[in-house]
Write a structure and sequence with these properties.
It is a single chain. With 402 residues, the protein is α+β, with helices and mostly antiparallel strands. 26% of the residues lie in helices and 25% in strands. It has 11 helices and 19 strands. The strands form 5 sheets. Strands 8, 9, 12, 13, 15, 16 and 19 form a 7-stranded mixed β-sheet that branches. Strand 2 and strand 3 form a beta hairpin. The chain is elongated and about 95 Å long. The two termini are 42 Å apart. The model has no long low-confidence stretch (mean pLDDT 91).
Amino acid sequence: MQLCANKLDKKDFFGKSDPFLVFYRSNEDGTFTICHKTEVVKNTLNPVWQPFSIPVRALCNGDYDRTVKIDVYDWDRDGSHDFIGEFTTSYRELSKAQNQFTVYEVLNPRKKCKKKKYVNSGTVTLLSFSVDSEFTFVDYIKGGTQLNFTVAIDFTASNGNPLQPTSLHYMSPYQLSAYAMALKAVGEIIQDYDSDKLFPAYGFGAKLPPEGRISHQFPLNNNDEDPNCAGIDGVLESYFQSLRTVQLYGPTYFAPVINQVARAAAKISDGSQYYVLLIITDGVISDMTQTKEAIVSASSLPMSIIIVGVGPAMFEAMEELDGDDVRVSSRGRYAERDIVQFVPFRDYVDRSGNQVLSMARLAKDVLAEIPEQLLSYMRTRDIQPRPPPTANSSPTPAPEQP
């Protein structure tokens, strides 16, 4: 909705008022809870506030006739904002105003009691009001959207010799390595959203037999034509097999595998497929510029990137790619959406050595942002979920594989 005001009371000694609105939802016990504040419009008695969105449940808890109270204040730097006046409405009343301007009188009860000739402290006009249905992650999954899961594992020498217990890739007969635990934790949950359970799995930063060619994107199953592994157990099996045959080397390049998945994601724009790339790394990245460029380009596609950092390294570069605080940019271009989620595995390791608990904690946090990232893509493309398929309808076509 968008609102403006007219002829508000002047509250500042020098200059005019700096008005803003505060919206309150009424509670069952007669109290009010703040549910929205507009921005402050400086030095005017006739402000026009920016349009804003608010969930219906936040405004009225789904009760269309519940009172919504709106206070008008004059902003003061010291926080002692001056009360100009108030008015009440309801969701139903607001929604009726979709096709016409509705004008509310702003009343100050104290002034009304004191001054006989008091009319009002100005007016607020509802300029626009529209309601959009907001779909959930589950709506898209029910409608047949598939999550296509791709794995990329860091095979660079900085991980240490896999035959040594100090290596992050150490294949102990008694417990999984950090790499294997991260892969299993995330993969076992995400595979339930993928109907064919076939996962392309790659390694990067290794020398491949027999001629020792360095590769930044080799299939773990050694099959260039079909990099798919059957289920997470198939990915783990291929990972262990690769550790026995390739030589850990370097450098650490993320961009090739990000671009590989992006090429597959670029072919599907109807919302039927969403790609998730899991990169597991010790965090020493050599192609930061190219990786940022790849992420910015991929941010307009139906894909997300999860980076799990293993080992003791400082992960500043990974935090920068995450984009939670500052959106990733490359050559002046900013990522359209935040599509990267980074977590350091060490934050989830259970001190008592309970691997199941460590994996559960990791999976919960790692996958937390995927639903919102999928929804942000669908919203920007105005893609609505398909109706859930009936029992005899045909299945979703097989995904384009990276």
